[in-house]
Amino acid sequence: MLRHGLLMCMMLLVFPQVASAGVPRDVDAGSATAKSGVPTTVRYFWNCTRAMPGLSGAAEHGSMTVKSSTGNHCGRPDQPVLELVYTSQPGFKGDDRATYYWTRYPYSLRIRVQ
Fold this sequence. Notes:
By secondary structure, this protein is mainly beta.
C-alpha cells in the first residue's frame, strides 16, 4: 500500500496533468450573433484526416441542429462539413448560452440574439 502511494506521488510530480484527469470542463468557444427566430449557422466543422466525429448541441432559449454540407477545405472543394445551426425561440432577444459537444467534449458558446 505504501509503495502504491509513493508511486502515485512520484507520478503526480512528473505528470501533474494526472491530478486533473477526468471530465473536462466546458471550453469557451467564443460568441456568435443571430436574428431572433432565424436559423443561423454559428459554427462549421470538418476533419481533413479521418471520419467526422459526432456533433450535438442545446441552447437555453432556442435549439441547435446539425446540417451536413460541403465546403472548400483541405484542398477539396467537396470536403464534408457539419454546420451547427442555432434558432432562438420566437420573439426571444438578448444573450443566450449554448453548449455543443464535438469529439465528446463540451464547448460553451455565447449567442447574442437581435
